[in-house]
Amino acid sequence: MRVLLVEDDDMVGEAMQLALRQAHFVVDWIRDGRKALGALFANYDMALLDLGLPGCDGMTVMQALQKNAPLLPVMIVSARDALDDRIRGLDLGADDYILKPFDMPELLARMRSVQRRYRKQNERHIGTDAIRLNLDSLCMCVGEIEAPLSQREASLMQALLARPGAIRSREALEREVYHGDDDVSSNALEFLIYSIRRKFGQSTIRNVRGMGWAVAK
């Protein structure tokens, strides 16, 4: 994980940089607000932003971040403890606001919390009102039942959920799940369907005799 650290205090910056590196982060440390503006287009996973910066105030940097890098998680790390400053920073788009002085374990825990929120926001899903498949974790929800799928099971459900209500033939499903593998056994598809039904219920995948399978719209 690559972190942009914007901090003008040498003692604070050195301590933060050391702790972040010990936690296995890659850190680029910038001490000036104007230079931070020039770093906005680099590929970072998170920014830690002080407010009292030379060259350009941290609030101005925060505004520029929201305009030019709106998907970048930002944590304000500042000694400004006034309520107005905290409200303004959060309203400008900061994901968290931590006051100096702070303990590094708390900062790292808050960073992990922000990371978790962003991962959840960016997860890819496919499905219907009744069925939701997470394409990243390969977990599926059917009603109140949630369970992980194997890669093949997920490929089958993705093929069915791409066209809810449409009947998909054996040939079409085998092509999408097995990608033309000649070694696929004759009952492999049925075994996947059986496995999914065992986890989520018989009605999860509907069989249309002689035609194929479908999921409800």
Topology (SSEs and partners):
Layout: E1 2-6, H1 10-22, E2 26-30, H2 33-38, E3 46-49, H3 58-68, E4 74-78, H4 83-91, E5 96-99, H5 104-122, E6 125-127, E7 131-134, E8 139-142, E9 145-148, H6 151-161, H7 170-178, H8 188-200, E10 206-208, E11 212-214
Parallel strand pairs: 1-2, 1-3, 3-4, 4-5
Antiparallel strand pairs: 6-7, 7-8, 8-9, 10-11
Helix pairs in contact: 6-7
**H/E topology pattern:** EHEHEHEHEHEEEEHHHEE
**Beta-strand residue fraction:** 15-25%
Pairing-aware structural class of the strands and helices? alpha/beta
Largest sheet: 5 strands, parallel
Helix content: 40-55%
The helix count comes to 8
Identify low-pLDDT runs.
none
Annotation keywords:
single chain, 217 residues, alpha/beta, four-stranded antiparallel β-sheet, 8 helices, 42% helix, 20% strand, elongated
How would you characterize this protein structure?
With 217 residues, this protein is α/β, with parallel strands linked by helices. The chain contains 8 helices and 11 strands. The protein has helices at residues 10-22, 33-38, 58-68, 83-91, 104-122, 151-161, 170-178, 188-200; strands at residues 2-6, 26-30, 46-49, 74-78, 96-99, 125-127, 131-134, 139-142, 145-148, 206-208, 212-214. It has a 5-stranded parallel beta sheet with strand order 2-1-3-4-5, sandwiched between helices. Strands 6-7-8-9 form a 4-stranded antiparallel beta sheet, with helices on one face. A two-stranded antiparallel ribbon has the order 10-11. A hairpin with a 2-residue loop joins strand 8 (139-142) and strand 9. Helix 6 crosses helix 7 (170-178). It is elongated, with a radius of gyration of 25 Å. The model has no long low-confidence stretch (mean pLDDT 91).
